[in-house]
Specification:
Helix content: 55-70%
Structural class: mainly alpha
Order of helices and strands: HHHHHHHHEHHHEHHHHHHHHHHHH
Shape: globular
Strand content: under 5%
Largest sheet: 2 strands, parallel
Low-confidence stretches: 97-133
Strand order of the largest sheet: 1-2
Number of helices: 23
Radius of gyration: 23 Å
Amino acid sequence: MIYQPPTALPRDLLSDGAVQRALAEHDFGTVFRIARERTGISYSKFAAECDIKAERVGTLARGQGRITTFEKIVQIADALRVPGHMLGLTPRPWEAGDIPAGTSPRTENGPNLRRRTILQAATSTGLAAALPDLHRPEPPARVTDTYVDGLRKRTARLRRLDDVLGGGDTYRVYLGEVQYTKSILRQGSFTDVARRRLTALLAEQAQQAGWAAFDGGHTRAATSLYEESRTYARDAQDSDLYGNSLAFLAYGTLSDDRRTAVTFARDSCATITARTPSSVRALLYERLAWACAVDGQPSGTETALAAARESLANPQDGEPQPDWSVWVDHTELDIMTGRCWTELRRPLRAVPVLTRALGGYSDDHARDKALYLSWLADAYLTAGEIEQAAEAIGSALDLASGVASIRPRQRILPLLDRLRPHAGVGPVRELLQRTAG
């Protein structure tokens, strides 16, 4: 028998318009208040099931404060038995396809439907069962370079999941790869070269798992994995992966400590040598540019962006590029450039470069495109172009629907708040009505 928590909301309450609007906006205080009034569920019960202090539940119910972390949103969804799509999540494990009346998600076609098909397979059977490549090959008695090469190719294939799925779906998959490689290193027999190469692969896998954790809202797990990656990269004497671990630490630290993040990013760039592949150089420099932009350093931002662009423009002949950095190309750098200028409140610089880059950006990369559209909308708002901002936000919402990543919603909700004073403008009014229902 499936456990049914005492805080599970009745079907008729989930079909209520006010509750649906509150859930769409992650306004859990309103949900708690309406639920207590309509069902008699006490705040203390909500507190116990959601692992929130009772006084905090009461404060939220009075309209003070918000729940913003992915982990807590997921915990509340499970405690209240709110279907995932009502909160911008993928279906929860306890869902059986019986969706309350009036809550059906929009029908979609094209790339988004293809992405949803992958999500359905992932959430109904688990990624390991849905994707045959996740069945791991047995290691030989003595681990060879050939076997490590096979694991490296496998890691590259699994990395492609991040193109279409959010970290909420992929984190456990990538973490499983980390744990598997650790077990081989503990138990296997190696040549010195094979051990060093497998340790480098472990550093790469820890970075991918850390990224998925960060994307899924598991910030502490992400930081821990980045730290592990730094240790493995150092042990493997791989300066490129070592520099990338510092860049990841910079990215993850920005929201809490901007100056430390900039220091991490500068230290990552200090690992660059004449032998560093061009895509790795560009990746490290663009992460430095972003850290400088968030810290309000326009000069440092411009210098780092120029270095990243020069790196891409001058690759060495026949220079191999690691699979983990090949996604950094001129389009990606244009997007980072636009993000940086948006963050620095320079919309005249940001809008043209973001518009150009997003013009050819596939909807298959739904999470990333939704995020990038949010920066375009941000730049439009700063420039006073309200209608264009509303259009960009609407497109971002369409793409982000159902993606198991907390980041698009974290970006979009504040932008919707900035649009509210312009509710008299037609496109804005339509967008606000759409997100309210």
